[in-house]
Write a structure and sequence with these properties.
Distance between the termini: 46 Å
InterPro entries: UPP_synth-like, UPP_synth-like_CS, UPP_synth-like_sf
CATH class of the largest domain: Alpha Beta
Shape: globular
Keywords: Magnesium, Metal-binding, Transferase
Oligomer: single chain
Number of domains: 2
Strand order of the largest sheet: 3-4-2-1-5-6
Bound molecules: farnesyl diphosphate
Cofactor: Mg(2+)
Family: Belongs to the UPP synthase family.
Subunit structure: Homodimer.
Largest sheet: 6 strands, parallel
Helix content: 40-55%
Length: about 260
């Protein structure tokens, strides 16, 4: 009996917490300017339904659309989505091929709406190694949206945080060797400018879905002072209410950047 009461209480308070996370309420607080998301759990979502893993990725693509729409409506300035890591090449060829076709399908379906909604598409990651058809789709979207000044939808594709840092260090070293850069000039700001995220400001909030609590080589430099939010929800199940809930949690946290 006691357990039943406890369960009821938990469910009840969870439900009433959810009710606070309306768009209207969230807009009363500070909106994170840059949200980064590790979209995890597509495979498990599919497995639970006895479907192939790629079905989970396809469902995840639809969630990308919905999340972009809401983030834009909330006035978020940038949304970086970890769509394919440098480690993901180790997956079976069929899955990799499918993931490489998703940007084309996504942009083929939704680009006109993104243009209409003033969304600007960008990509962070190594273009080398990506199939030409994937690059073509992404480059077209970047070109077609370059004059938009709403939400920046930044796809981290063929991206690895350590490789990004090494690449920046190499470029800086080459410039120093050539004499076009003085080593005294090297500071955090300059280093950031050599990263693939260049002018994008660091994420305020990192969300990872599916219950995994790790960074998986994602934005290692840029996430130094971000708020982290881990949720058990699998990415294909991530709905508007979960984004609102994540931002609500962010609004309750006090960011001190090392100060007091
Ligand atoms: C991780 O889940 C997810 C990925 C490696 C791919 C993420 C891609 C999408 C959500 C679609 C991207 C859409 C566009 C428009 C590019 P997992 O497969 O590792 O899940 P699991 O841990 O449950 O196996």
């Amino acid at each position: 009996m006691l357990n039943i009461l406890k369960n009821w209480k938990n469910q009840h308070s969870a439900a009433s917490n959810m009710e606070c996370y309306t768009k209207e309420n969230i807009l009363k607080g500070e909106i994170p300017e840059h949200i980064a998301i590790i979209m995890d759990g597509n495979g498990r979502w599919a497995k639970k339904r006895a479907m192939p893993r790629i079905a989970g990725h396809h469902e995840g693509m639809k969630v990308v659309r919905q999340t972009t729409k809401l983030a834009n409506e909330l006035g978020v300035k940038a949304l970086t989505l970890y769509a394919f890591s440098t480690e993901n090449w180790k997956r079976p060829k069929l899955e990799v091929d499918f993931l490489m076709k998703l940007p084309e399908e996504f942009l083929g379906t939704y680009l006109p709406e993104l243009v209409e909604e003033n969304v600007r598409v960008r990509m962070t990651g190594d273009r080398e190694g990506l199939p030409p058809h994937t690059i073509r789709a992404v480059e077209k979207a970047i070109r077609d949206t370059e004059n938009n000044d709403g939400l920046i939808l930044n796809f981290a594709l063929n991206y690895g945080g350590r490789a990004e840092i090494v690449r920046a260090a190499k470029k800086i070293a080459e410039e120093a060797k050539k004499g076009t850069l003085n080593t005294e000039e090297i500071d955090e700001k300059l280093f950031s400018d050599y990263l693939m995220t260049e002018t994008l400001q660091d994420p305020d909030l990192l969300i990872r879905t599916s219950g995994e609590i790790r960074l998986s080589n994602f934005m290692l430099w840029q996430l130094a002072y971000s708020e982290f939010l881990f949720t058990d929800v699998l990415w294909p199940d991530f709905k508007d209410v979960h984004l609102l809930q994540a931002i609500g949690e962010y609004q309750r946290r006090g960011r001190r950047f090392g100060g007091i």
